[in-house]
User: Which sequence fits this backbone?
């Protein structure tokens, strides 16, 4: 890596700059602003020319890659290297003048009407480089001292002023044009939700009256009357929806007008007119449940958006569009145009394995039907089989192979399926319902195991996709071992309850709730429209065994659940609660550099019928998404040292987790990204288990047991997915008997850990 960097910088950075031109080496923005209304980094988005990208704000790596190419553009090597790199940015005086103008306009738009910009250049003739220093002088801001409103009639005045307490613009604010634009958008949306289908924000104007020698502004907002000769719909009329038409087989490639679109069957259902083509692929009640535009009701833009959102959950649809046509002075017809997609598909996967010379093969087939009940219910079924030969001494084993068969099935309903709930509530919540079942049969050398699962859950989204919810009223996991070698469990885990639990029959019936929130915008940021701060919140809560425990307690009384727990079907079932939460905030410094911060906390507590959490529900430390100086499941709990044996692998899990991370992410060139990170955290146990000495959480000492690591990573961003390669090094190791500060006394073989994963760690 060091050699590559030296090679890149051995070339002159202005090597490919034409004679008489200059490489734009650096840009500096200085703001002389006593009001502190401007951040220089925020003003950089208005520049019309930027220098070459700097990795970690110092090295122009992409330019260095470009400079590795020769001058002959006919050679494939030169073209390929240039595509990977970035061409030198040649200084353009016209773009500098445009940047100055844009910076000045940006300050004026924020209310600094007397703002000025001075651009100074510093040339280095020998190195053919130039630097630009933009000096911004905003001056005194103009403040709104009074706001007046003009309306064409009393009807609009009453409608608009009814929401005046929510207005964005207030007296005392700066004369910010973005705030004025937001005010126009707010009033327009309010009117469109009151029937004014044809109203647009262009009918709202502002007039600012200033007095010479004063920075006070008297602002007048005018809602203008309709323009004379405006064709088509009446812009200042409130409309009522007369008819709602569904066209279920609309082909956008045809030239036929959708108002006269050919159909083969027509059905009237609860006020809707459904025009079917050859196939009645969606039931009328399904179309009704996903339409919130009602005939005879006033037009509301929010109901159009709700209908779009509801229709987007129907997987059978390829496209959907909603159009409105005026049919009278105050009436419009709504046309909902649906284009169906492919209803069925099959996917086949084949893979080969080689485990220390033992060859194996696995294959799976997945079948998907996106409209199995003519309600856009999506059925997914999967069959999988795997086989691996087994060599060596097979004496005492019950199988001479590894073999696994599994079957999975699931149905997703695009509605809230539940009894005793009103249809109004089901339509309002806009949820999907999922039913999933699976069964896996495993043959291992020492045992045969069957794993069965079943679950029922609801998923819904609101607040423009910012909030996502998953409620799972029931999820069942059942593990059954019909046969094993003699004394198999006693041999591998004579005194280890965690390891025994993993290979004994067990039963979990749980209820869960998941909440996700993010302010991330869906569209890709453009230059000048970079979302500076993105946060994400994820929380999950689940409880298990309470219903079974209540039923058992009614009919049977137990004095000690540890020695004589309740059972179902002769199997000990688990009872616990578990919380898991993560918060991430990403600060985008510029389009190519970002800082990410993450904190995660989890707590699981067994009670009643359980003295320990199920192994698969416990937390683990280390790994690609934890403290990356440790391999997965090799950190903690607490000061527990571990020896990387099978026994300790099972023991290195806990009931409490705490993760803290900071990561710098920078784009290099092509699809390559670089990450530099610092992690801290650990896991702990709720109780003092004999097999996990030093793992107990204690308030007065847990902070001393926070492990720490640092490292770098290389990422490959393929847009739709990201491959991540991270290398972490231990910095502080709390484990008993270990070197406490590897940061001071590093050992490559002891302290490093490599990780390969898909996606960012947080």
Assistant:
């Amino acid at each position: 890596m060091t050699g590559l960097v030296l090679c890149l910088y051995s070339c002159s950075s202005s090597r490919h700059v034409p004679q008489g031109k200059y490489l734009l080496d650096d840009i500096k923005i200085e703001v002389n602003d006593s009001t502190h209304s401007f951040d220089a980094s925020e003003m950089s988005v208005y520049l019309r020319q930027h220098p070459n990208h700097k990795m970690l704000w110092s090295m122009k790596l992409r330019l260095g890659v470009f400079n590795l190419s020769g001058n002959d553009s006919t050679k494939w090597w030169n073209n390929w290297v240039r595509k990977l790199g970035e061409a030198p940015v040649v200084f353009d005086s016209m773009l500098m003048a445009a940047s100055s103008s844009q910076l000045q306009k940006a300050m004026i738009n924020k209310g600094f009407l007397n703002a000025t910009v001075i651009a100074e250049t510093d040339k280095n003739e020998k190195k053919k480089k130039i630097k630009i220093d933009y000096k911004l002088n905003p001056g005194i801001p103009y403040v709104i001292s009074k706001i007046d409103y003009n309306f064409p009639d009393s009807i609009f005045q009453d409608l608009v002023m009814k929401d005046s307490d929510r207005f964005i613009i207030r007296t005392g604010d700066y004369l910010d044009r973005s705030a004025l634009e937001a005010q126009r958008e707010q009033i327009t949306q309010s009117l469109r939700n009151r029937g004014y289908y044809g109203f647009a924000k262009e009918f709202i104007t502002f007039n600012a009256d200033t007095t010479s020698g004063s920075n006070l502004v008297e602002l007048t907002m005018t809602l203008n009357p309709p323009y004379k000769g405006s064709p088509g719909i009446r812009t200042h009329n409130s409309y009522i929806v007369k008819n709602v038409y569904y066209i279920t087989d609309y082909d956008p490639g045809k030239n036929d007008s959708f108002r006269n679109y050919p159909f083969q069957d027509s059905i009237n259902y609860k006020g809707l007119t459904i025009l079917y083509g050859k196939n009645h692929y969606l039931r009328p009640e399904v179309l009704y449940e996903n339409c919130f535009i009602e005939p005879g009701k006033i037009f509301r833009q929010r109901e159009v958006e709700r209908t779009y959102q509801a229709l987007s959950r129907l997987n059978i649809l390829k496209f959907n569009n909603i159009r409105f046509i005026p049919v009278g002075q105050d009436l419009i017809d709504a046309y909902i145009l649906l284009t169906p997609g492919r209803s069925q598909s099959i996917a086949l996967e084949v893979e080969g394995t080689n485990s220390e010379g033992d060859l194996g093969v696995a294959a799976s087939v997945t079948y998907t039907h996106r409209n199995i009940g003519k309600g856009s219910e999506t059925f997914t079924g999967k069959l999988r089989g795997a086989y691996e030969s087994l060599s060596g001494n097979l004496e005492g084993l019950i199988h001479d192979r590894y073999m696994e068969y599994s079957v999975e099935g699931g149905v997703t309903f695009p509605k809230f399926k539940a009894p005793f709930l009103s249809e109004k509530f089901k339509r309002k919540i806009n949820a999907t319902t999922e039913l999933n079942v699976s069964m896996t049969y495993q043959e291992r050398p020492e045992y045969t195991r069957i794993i069965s699962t079943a679950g029922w859950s609801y998923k819904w989204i609101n607040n423009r996709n910012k909030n996502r919810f998953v409620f799972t009223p029931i999820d069942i996991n059942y593990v059954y071992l019909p046969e094993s070698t003699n004394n198999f469990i006693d041999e591998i885990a004579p005194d280890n309850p965690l390891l025994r639990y993993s290979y004994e029959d067990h039963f979990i019936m749980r209820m869960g709730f998941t909440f996700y929130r993010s302010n991330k915008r869906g569209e890709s940021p453009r230059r000048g429209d970079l979302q500076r701060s993105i946060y994400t919140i994820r929380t999950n809560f689940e409880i298990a065994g309470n219903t079974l425990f209540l039923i058992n307690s009614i009919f049977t009384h137990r004095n000690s659940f540890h020695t004589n727990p309740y059972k179902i079907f002769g199997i000990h079932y688990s009872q616990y609660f578990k919380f898991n939460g993560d918060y991430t905030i990403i600060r985008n410094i510029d389009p190519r550099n970002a800082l990410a911060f993450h904190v995660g906390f989890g707590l699981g507590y067994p009670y009643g019928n359980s003295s320990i959490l199920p192994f698969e529900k416990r937390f683990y430390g280390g790994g690609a998404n934890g403290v990356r100086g440790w391999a997965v499941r090799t950190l903690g709990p607490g000061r527990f040292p571990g020896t990387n044996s099978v026994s300790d692998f099972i023991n290195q899990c806990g009931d409490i987790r705490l993760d803290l991370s900071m990561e710098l992410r920078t784009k290099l060139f092509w699809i390559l990204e670089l990450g530099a990170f610092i992690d801290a955290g650990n896991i702990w146990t709720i109780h003092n288990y004999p097999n996990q000495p030093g793992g107990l959480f204690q308030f007065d000492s847990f902070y001393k047991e926070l492990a720490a690591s640092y490292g770098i990573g290389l990422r490959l961003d393929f847009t739709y997915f990201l491959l991540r390669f991270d290398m972490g090094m231990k910095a502080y190791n709390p484990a008993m008997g270990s070197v406490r500060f590897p940061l001071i006394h590093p050992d490559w073989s002891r302290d490093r850990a490599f990780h390969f994963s898909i996606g960012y760690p947080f």
Remarks:
- The first strand starts at residue 23 and ends at 31.
- Confidence is low (pLDDT under 50) at residues 1-6.
- The two ends are 26 Å apart (CA to CA).
- Residues 93-109 form the longest helix (17 residues).
